[in-house]
DNA sequence: ATGGCTGCGGAACGCAGA
């Protein structure tokens, strides 16, 4: 089974690429982030033509997540149970479903904006709620994984120049501790291999030639429990999808499972 | 060529992204 995660930065803008990519890779389950469209605008028809069912949690201009599956889609949970609000709203940042043999979450963790910003404490609270919500499934015997845009680089190796990120979000001890606490439920960071260069970055800023200069970050992660991690036969970042006109600023992370 | 941001809402430019 091939499972992947991809922050598409607008499913509307990315639809031609997305459909072509699904066909060429034969992905069975795709976790999507930043759909940037309302649920009733989601292109369910075109995805169904390719054989995918979709679980969607999306409300409009910002955020939005989905799970696409052609191996079944059951027991959908929309949103993060017990998750915090921002500006009085539970933002659409999580959706989960059972896809064939595995329980799968697609998450888009809040950015945090600046250390000390209200959005930053929201980010940390969001991680706490996520940790509580996945604990039972993480410890269970069924393959389980949280995939998505975590908006944290787990180590200094996961940013192109740690000096540039000093004092910024995505690399602070508080955020990395939140990731470690999440892993403490029994989850392993499934490290993908890069297709080029030495680090498996998943995001490159659109600005200032970020991609050609490989000024990247690894912030799109696959956190699987032991039954999931032990079934992994391959994992890679599909940097080819970051190339050319009309690319997202994130590349897909692809994981092959023997299940 | 991998190339100096992009998408959205709304109809100019501000917000958000990380």
UniProtKB/TrEMBL annotation:
A molecular-function term among this protein's GO annotations: double-stranded DNA 3'-5' DNA exonuclease activity
SUPFAM superfamilies xref list: DNase I-like
Start and end residues of each Endonuclease/exonuclease/phosphatase domain: 4-250
Keyword Metal-binding: yes
InterPro entries, sorted: AP_endonuc_1, Endo/exonu/phosph_ase_sf, Endo/exonuclease/phosphatase, ExoIII-like
Name of the top EC class for this enzyme: hydrolase
Tree of life domain: Bacteria
Protein EC: 3.1.11.2
Keywords: Hydrolase, Magnesium, Metal-binding
Cofactor dependency: Mg(2+)
PROSITE patterns (alphabetical): AP_NUCLEASE_F1_4
Family named by the database record: Belongs to the DNA repair enzymes AP/ExoA family.
Protein name: Exodeoxyribonuclease III
Origin species: Streptomyces celluloflavus
């Amino acid at each position: 089974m091939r499972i992947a995660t991809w922050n598409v930065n607008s499913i509307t803008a990315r639809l031609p690429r997305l459909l072509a990519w699904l066909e060429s890779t034969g992905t069975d389950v795709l976790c999507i982030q930043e759909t940037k469209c309302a649920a009733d605008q989601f292109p369910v028809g075109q995805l169904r033509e390719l054989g995918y069912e979709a679980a969607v949690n999306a409300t409009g201009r910002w955020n939005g997540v989905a799970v696409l599956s052609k191996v079944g889609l059951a027991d959908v949970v929309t949103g993060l149970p017990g998750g915090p609000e921002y500006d009085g709203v539970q933002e659409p940042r999580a959706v989960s479903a059972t896809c064939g043999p595995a329980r799968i979450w697609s998450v888009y963790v809040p950015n945090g904006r600046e250390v000390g910003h209200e959005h930053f404490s929201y980010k940390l609270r969001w991680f706490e709620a996520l940790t509580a919500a996945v604990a039972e499934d993480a410890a269970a015997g069924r393959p389980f994984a949280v995939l998505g845009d975590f908006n944290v680089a787990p180590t200094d190796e996961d940013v192109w120049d740690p000096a540039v990120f000093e004092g910024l979000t995505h690399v602070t001890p508080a955020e990395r501790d939140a990731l470690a606490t999440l892993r403490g439920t029994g989850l392993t960071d499934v490290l993908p291999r890069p297709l080029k260069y030495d680090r498996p970055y998943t995001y490159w800023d659109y600005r200032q030639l970020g991609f050609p200069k490989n000024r990247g970050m690894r912030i799109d992660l696959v956190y699987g429990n032991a039954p999931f991690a032990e079934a992994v036969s391959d994992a890679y970042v599909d940097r080819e999808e970051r190339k050319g006109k009309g690319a997202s600023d994130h590349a897909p992370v692809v994981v092959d499972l023997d299940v």
